[in-house]
Design brief:
Helices cover about 50% and strands about 10% of the residues. It is mainly α. Helix 2 (about 25-35) links the parallel strand 1 (about 10) and strand 2 (about 45). The longest helix is centred in the last third of the chain and has 21 residues, at about 135-154. The radius of gyration is 17 Å and the shape is globular.
């Protein structure tokens, strides 16, 4: 994608290390990926704990590519064109629920080759302003009512 478009990439880590021995650190993972990329010099890893700055970057992204559910949820709600890498069924399920399953690729060697074309297609297709946010809010409210009912019985 970098070669075909001349664009830059910004990695926006969602899971930040909470201690020096935390192995689940998106910043460290992003830096490892960047170091292995042919055009790694055109990649920036956003290493900030400032939530507003991360949200601003996601909101203004030409395309937001994410693996974590919460990244894809935030990008969708902010109206950023979103492409998801489904490492877990919950990611694909979210993309399906928001009518974006077309822009989802599974985290497997036989699927990841599709990612560059999905990103380019998403750039052409545009944002997620058409996503049925009200439908998601209604589903969340229903889930909350069910949880309240179940917990009141306990």
């Amino acid at each position: 994608v970098l070669e075909r478009t001349g664009k830059r990439i910004r990695f926006v880590p969602m899971k930040l290390a909470v201690g020096p021995n935390d192995v689940d650190d998106d910043v460290a993972t992003a830096r490892r990926i960047q170091s292995q990329m042919k055009y790694g010099s055109r990649v920036e890893v956003l290493d900030t704990k400032d939530v507003r700055e991360r949200i601003d970057v996601i909101k203004n992204a030409e395309v937001a590519v994410g693996m974590r559910l919460h990244f894809n949820l935030i990008a969708t709600v902010l109206g950023a064109p979103t492409v998801a890498i489904a490492y877990n069924p919950k990611v694909r399920s979210f993309m399906r629920a928001t009518d974006q399953e077309l822009f989802t690729v599974d985290l497997s060697h036989d699927q990841l080759w599709k990612l560059p074309d999905l990103v380019l297609h998403r750039m052409a297709f545009g944002g997620s302003r058409h996503i049925p946010i009200q439908r998601l809010q209604d589903a969340a409210a229903l889930n909350w009512r069910v949880l309240e009912k179940v917990s009141s019985r306990a």
